[in-house]
Structure formats: C-alpha cells, structure tokens
Specification:
The structure is a homodimer of 225-residue chains. By secondary structure, the first copy, chain A, is α/β, with parallel strands linked by helices. The first copy, chain A, has two domains: 138 residues, Response regulator (Rossmann fold), CATH 3.40.50.2300; 71 residues, Winged helix-like DNA-binding domain superfamily/Winged helix DNA-binding domain (Arc Repressor Mutant, subunit A), CATH 1.10.10.10. Chain A is 52% helix and 13% strand. Chain A contains twelve helices and six strands. In chain A, strands 2-1-3-4-5-6 form a six-stranded parallel beta sheet, sandwiched between helices. In chain A, helix 1 links the parallel strand 1 and strand 2. Chain A is elongated and about 65 Å long. About 5% of the residues of chain A have low confidence. The structure holds a DNA duplex (30 and 30 nucleotides).
DNA sequence: GAAACCATAGGGGCTAACCCTCATTTTTAG
DNA sequence: CTAAAAATGAGGGTTAGCCCCTATGGTTTC
C-alpha cells in the first residue's frame, strides 16, 4: 500500500462498536500516511471534535447514539468545506444513498465490504473531490435508474406542516379520531388532511396511507416541521 | 488478563464484517490461552467448520448471510454438546433473548459492549455450563418480567395452515380480494379466516391484523407451514 | 359413527378510511 | 392591501376490513 504523497491524512472515526473501531483503525493505519487522530463512539463527540480540530477526513457510522451520521453530516458540511466525509453502513437501501449524496458526503461504504473498500474510499475521496461508493451499491443504483421511480423526497416537501404532523401520527399507528383528539381539531379535518396527503403522495386505495408510513417510517421519522 | 488453566480454548468467530472480525480476533487473542482457529463471514461456513473440526466455543453474529446465527445454533446444539455458543448482536429486543435461550446458546453479547463483555462472556461460558448475558440486556429482562406479556409464539402455533398461509399474505400487503385470487378461494372465505386469526391472536379493531403483521414480520417470516 | 376440527362459503351489520365537493377563516407573500 | 395558500370544517358517497351468525362437506380421532 503505497501513497504517492507523503502528506499525513488526519482521520476521525466514529462508530459505536469499539471492536469495529479497533479493526477499522488497524486497517487504516496499515497505510503509512493515514493517521487516526480521534475515535468517537457517538455522533455528538465526533461533531464536537471536528468543529474544534483540523482533520482531513471523517469516517462516520450511519447508526450511532445521540447523533447519527446523517445529523453530523448535515451540521458539518456547511461550515467545513475542506472536510471529506465517508459513511459506513450496513444498509444498502437506495433511499439512503440518495440522502447521503444530498448532504455532500463523498463516500458510502458498506460494512461488509469494508476491508477492501475503505482504503479505496479514503484514497479516492482524500485526493480530490471525487466520490466513492461501494461497488455493490453502485450496482444497485444502476438497476434502480432503469425503472422510473417516484421521488418521495420531493413529495414530502410538498406537504404542509399540518399534513406532516398528521402523517407522523399516522405512522405512529393513530386513527383519525385519535389524531383529532391529540391536535384538538375535528375528525373531519383530519380526514381532509389525510385525503390531501394521499393526493400529494399519489396513494390510492384502502389503507394505502398507513402502508406508506410503514414502508417509509425512516423518512418520516427524519422529517422536520 | 490471567487465566488459571493453561489449556488452549479453540474459538471460531463468524461475522460478515471483516473489520469487526479483525478487531474481535485481536481482543480475544490478547488473552494468552484463547486462540481463534477459524473465521467465517457467513453462517454456513461456520456450521460446516464446526461440524468437521473440534472447537470449544463459537462466537456467532446473529445477522449473517446464507445462515444466520439462529439457524446455525438450531442445527448445532443437538449434535454437539460440549460446544459453547455466544451470540453477538446489535439487538437488545427481548424476543431475541428468549429465542436464544431456547436454543441452548450460552452467551448473548451486545456489539456495542463487546470489548468489555466478550472476554467476560468467554471466561464464564468456557469454564462451566454457566450463562452470560450483557448486563444491559439483563436489565431489560428484569423490567420485562414484571409485566405479563402475551406469548405470540403459542398463538402462532394455534393457527391452522390456511390461517398461516393467509397471515403470510396479509404481511405481504395483500388485500382479501388479492388473497382470494391467489389461493383460488372465495373472498368471503378469506374474510372468515382473517376473522378467526383475529380471534386467536386477540386482535380487535380496524386494520389491527395488518398492523400486527407489520410489528411481527420477523416472526411471520420464520413461520413454518 | 359421533365428536371435533378444518376449509369452504354466504348473509348482513358496522366502522374507519378513502374520495369527491364545497365553504370559512387564518396565515403568508408579493 | 390583496391574492394565494393553508388550516379548518362539513356533506355525502364507496369500499375494505372487522364481526357476528349459519351451513356444508371433508378429515381425523376416539
């Protein structure tokens, strides 16, 4: 493993599993000019360290306590432009990848491919402004792009605050009656909102909305309003 | 880290994340008489190795390709009585712990506590027939035992084959009409089955069945009929 | 062969959610 | 200030699923 440049690349790793962190560190430091300068077991600690110290690259686990990888990236990329971020995750779901790219994250590496992929990812991401995504995920994306897929992100943004509030409660398995009692509004209003949500999300049929919230619980939980 | 006995304990580790495996190995082998004799990145490989070789302890990730930890344990504990099994997992859900204990698995360690817990677990499990469960999970279990919990496993077994078949299809988001067309039976029959399933599972109210299948998808997928 | 169980099927009632349309008030934006 | 957008409410219709009942033919079991 040789690198053309002698410059030391300062790396932060954040993952809540100490054993994984250990393994990751030893893989990374097998390359001479890579140095792991800080380890975090949660997103908040990583965020603080990055704000207060100069580092080149942050490798963030997506699933972490306190702040997850998404949160950290969201807070960071506005202020720190030189910083590169690589996500480590177990999820190969497409929707994640989209979200990641929106945040300005440069790398997306699947944990099960980590040994092979992480060094490639660091190399590509740290030398220039290029993107690295685990090959297996790229394969996924290609398959995805062949079929025209409805863009839920866009649709979510077309929802009003009331609609989002109600969508959230539907995802928590609340009936229209329960929602009306929680929000101190008429049951009829709730039903009207439901109806409008269905229209905006292009959902039709019995229970379509609840089924949608089940399938997209992740996105709904992350919804801000 | 001193051990009273000089006997070498032969350990197999199975986890689909190579970096985690590396880290785990180095933690384990920091103890003189622990030796990792084989690493697997999937359950099937682990199963085969264990069948063909004499090892003392298998540390299995619950989430693995081909065969998961549950499958491996299920196949093994009948034939190999001297073998000890420790599960490594990210899930602290109670239902998993119950399932694990039923299989004769001796250890249950959460990945986020792995560095501290795994060596304790190996020590306790390998010296005698004792059980080790990550303290944080034990805390969970205590809380759980105070409330009387409905036993779904029992209820599942009370379902007839037709009912199970239909429950599976409901979990796949099929309507009664669709199910009737798939099974070549009247829609009314499907509704009767639904009704009986609701009675057996003690579910009432609109959509309760579908909500149940969402919450218990894991169990339904494992259902045999 | 009676009892029990199962799969099948239908009648009929009820409700929650979906689906229109319309109307009023409040908030927001130009 | 005015126009658009959002939030609230309602009337009225359809449907899927829940729930109660009965009933018939087929197994299994004692």
């Amino acid at each position: 493993m040789l690198e053309p440049e002698g410059k030391i690349i300062k790396i932060l790793i954040a993952d809540d599993h100490p054993i994984f962190r250990n393994g990751l560190k030893s893989v990374i430091e097998s390359v001479a000019n890579y140095s792991v300068v800080h380890e975090s077991d949660n997103g908040e600690d990583a965020f603080k360290y990055i704000c207060e110290n100069e580092i080149d690259l942050a490798i963030l686990d997506v699933e972490m306590p306190i702040m997850d990888g998404f949160e950290v990236a969201k807070q960071l990329h506005v202020e720190k432009k030189s910083l590169k971020i690589i996500f480590l995750t177990m999820f190969k779901e497409e929707r994640f990848v989209n979200k990641v790219l929106d945040l300005g994250v440069k790398g997306y590496v699947l944990k099960e491919n980590a040994v092979i992929d992480i060094l490639n990812a660091i190399k590509i991401v740290s030398t220039g402004n290029k993107l690295y995504i685990s090959p297996i995920i790229e394969h996924y994306l290609e398959a995805r792009n062949t079929k025209a897929e409805y863009n839920y992100k866009e649709s979510f943004e077309s929802l009003t605050n009331s609609e989002k509030k109600i969508l959230k409660l539907i995802s928590e398995n609340k009936s229209s009656k329960e929602i009306s009692e929680l929000l101190f509004i008429s049951g009829k209003t709730v039903e009207n909102h439901r109806s409008n949500i269905c229209k905006k999300l292009e959902l039709t049929g019995s229970n379509a909305l609840f089924k949608f919230t089940v399938d997209n619980k992740f996105l709904i939980d992350k919804m801000h309003f």
